[in-house]
Each structure stands twice: as structure tokens, then as C-alpha cells.
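Readers of this paper often ask what the protein records in our data store actually look like. The remainder of this section carries one protein's record, kept here as part of the documentation.

:::
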Amino acid sequence: MLEIEGPSGSAIAAAGMRVQQGRLRVMTENLANAQSTASTPGGDPYQRKIAVFAPVGAEAEPVGRVVRDTSPFR
């Protein structure tokens, strides 16, 4: 019988679901705040957030972080 080392299919699927959950959380926050204005006079409006994930090998857990978009306001 052929034995394959590394994470099981369910572990890989669970890791993918966690990545997608993080991306969706960031997208919904961006949508909810799309029309937000500055909370103080002269302040900056809401800056969108971007989910960034590092590429990983087959045996590593996905690593991600959320960063603010630094592009200028329109």
C-alpha cells in the first residue's frame, strides 16, 4: 500500500476554509465601510483593508495578515 506523508485531505481543506474565511471577513468590512467618512473634521475616510497570505508548502499552515491600502484617496 502506498503511504503519503504530509497533511490529510481534510486538514488541507480546513486550512483553505480558514483562508477563505479571513478573506471574506476583510471584504465584508470593506463593503460595510465603503461610504464611511472621517470621524473628525479634516480626518481621513476609511481605508480599505487587504488580506495578504504568504505562499506555503504542502506541510505548512497558511499564514496571513491584514494590511491597510496605502494608495491615495480619490
